[in-house]
Design brief:
The structure is a homodimer. Chain A has about 325 residues and is α/β, with parallel strands linked by helices. Among the domains of chain A are: about 45 residues, Orthogonal Bundle (434 Repressor (Amino-terminal Domain)), CATH 1.10.260.40; about 120 residues, Response regulator (Rossmann fold), CATH 3.40.50.2300. Chain A contains 14 helices and 12 strands. In chain A, the strands form 3 sheets. In chain A, strands 2-1-3-4-5-11 form a 6-stranded parallel sheet. A 4-stranded parallel sheet of chain A has the order 7-6-8-9, sandwiched between helices. In chain A, α12 links the parallel β8 and β9. In chain A, α9 crosses α10. Chain A is elongated and about 85 Å long. At the A-B interface, α4, α5, β2, α7 and α11 of A face α4, α5, β2, α7 and α11 of B. Chain A binds a DNA duplex (16 and 16 nucleotides) through α2 and α4.
Chain lengths: ~325, ~325
Amino acid sequence: MTSIKDVAKEAGVSISTVSKVLKNYPRISEDTKKKVHKAIKKLHYVPNAAAATLSSKRSGRVALLLNLRTGRQAIDEIDMQYIAGAIEEASKEKLDVITLFFSMIEDMSTRELIDYFYSQSIEGIIVYGLEKENEVISALVESREFKMVMVDAPMVNECTSCIWVDQAKAQYEVAKKTITENLGPKEQVLYITGDEDAFVTKERLAGMMKLQKELGFVLTVECGGFSELKAREIAIKHARDVDIIVCATDCMAIGAMKALIDEDVFHPVCGFGGVALMAYAGKQMNTVSIHFKDNSAEAVREIGRLLQGEEGRKIITSHNLTKLQYLDLIK
Amino acid sequence: MTSIKDVAKEAGVSISTVSKVLKNYPRISEDTKKKVHKAIKKLHYVPNAAAATLSSKRSGRVALLLNLRTGRQAIDEIDMQYIAGAIEEASKEKLDVITLFFSMIEDMSTRELIDYFYSQSIEGIIVYGLEKENEVISALVESREFKMVMVDAPMVNECTSCIWVDQAKAQYEVAKKTITENLGPKEQVLYITGDEDAFVTKERLAGMMKLQKELGFVLTVECGGFSELKAREIAIKHARDVDIIVCATDCMAIGAMKALIDEDVFHPVCGFGGVALMAYAGKQMNTVSIHFKDNSAEAVREIGRLLQGEEGRKIITSHNLTKLQYLDLIK
DNA sequence: TTGTATGCGTTATCAG
DNA sequence: CTGATAACGCATACAA
């Protein structure tokens, strides 16, 4: 392939001049800029990324770390949004992206992980969907060896930012909407939570408790552990003794709703997430629409900011309430 | 980071010896091997990939090129399977993967694309879901600049392989099963095809025609263009004058099935693909289960083979007939 | 404003 | 069997 040397020869200047033109260094005459650009165009020159990385020690390479669980529809959808958002944004920001799954690194120590990232010239890491405390990842964050952005896990330090949704508020809002839309004399509300030790669980529950105090309904809380099947079983169990089912995730909401349909009883159900799969659940449900793709793009921009030397911070992203309609979705 | 130089010093040998040990060169004494490995372990040495690439001109880097259409559930699912299969297999094969979308390169010429891949030290490219003829990709294949594997597009040359399903046979089988399961006096069968100019369309239609000759039913063919919405409209139009609906993709099958449910009429429907979303369509359907993830892993292995200097070839992968059940799925 | 020289961490070719 | 040494393509401190 054509190298910077060829360009230098073609333009009649030195290698370093070409390099400077490419990097938009300040003091270069318009004339030589012209010459160099002409040569670049003529030779179809594109800089060799590996050489640039080796020489400059900076790669602009970021790793996406995903908690893959293929076969779970809702999860696939979210992961895909994350990946798409990150890759598209990275392409704009001139960053290089590689995608990894937790499963690929689960038998590595923190040390091995760090070495691996260095060997790959990785400068930044975006961690998605870390549901709960994880020793290796925590140590990685603590090590401060890389710029990191945690999407959906509340961890921050000088070189780590997080993208976070106001869980309590969102849960409060969607539940309130669902309950007040279906006002009755004395409501019995069932709340199905995620895993007990997950980051979001306590906050979302707090949102529910606040609402319960405010509206005074009878609240039953059960743990669905993020499982569609478990939510289904819980819903069946309570099908006849509650009026409304609030779920901490869309996935569980779908499980609950399909259970009610099978049991031939109707109660309003609401979810949390805003995945398209909701439109296939059979009946409409309220949900909190999280902007997975946008959040992922934001994470990439944030990595860019950290790479510039800025400090880590907590970024609260917006959400909104929606009710997904099948016919709208397939348009 | 610790470099090969540090290892050499620690082990008391030269740099080139270390390199040879790492590469498993033949004539190295067991003794020095021991020393070197000990030093490597002690220093936690991991070779720098960028330097190795620069020096050896070989990167083991392959690009995945996907036709992303987020928001389409079934597509997201397939894409995710492709990505997961490729990345996991690449990790085993010691290959490096980057993911790209057609949308990111749609305004590039073939030349620019080639330059881009070179600048990124990419040696192999896997193209997924190229539905129809595409000028730039075809030129890329023709150029023979890279090793390529086409998943679901029948293109082959010396350095290009393809992974292909026997479309006609699969379509024939699933339609036959669906029709014979629901035997009636004189069936009226509706077949909803994909885009007219898509690679798979003609073959799948051929499978249907063969079956029609064999069983002698009345066949109506309409073009659904891979669109869930269009399939829905077609299904509504024919809801009362056909007995069975065969669709060229799962996506359209879901559209058709949900239409029938809304119209409150029941006819058997079958799809093609085997996406999990089928389980959410409301009623069970037969479908051809394509092993997207396995096929993607196979594509990576095939790229590895091509990288070894082997010739391109056409690989026919297996499929099987299934009927996805919601309760099985969420287990 | 431009050019020279050195180094980044490997691989690979030769000598020894 | 082992060790110098020259690339690889680029960035950058320093000279001019």
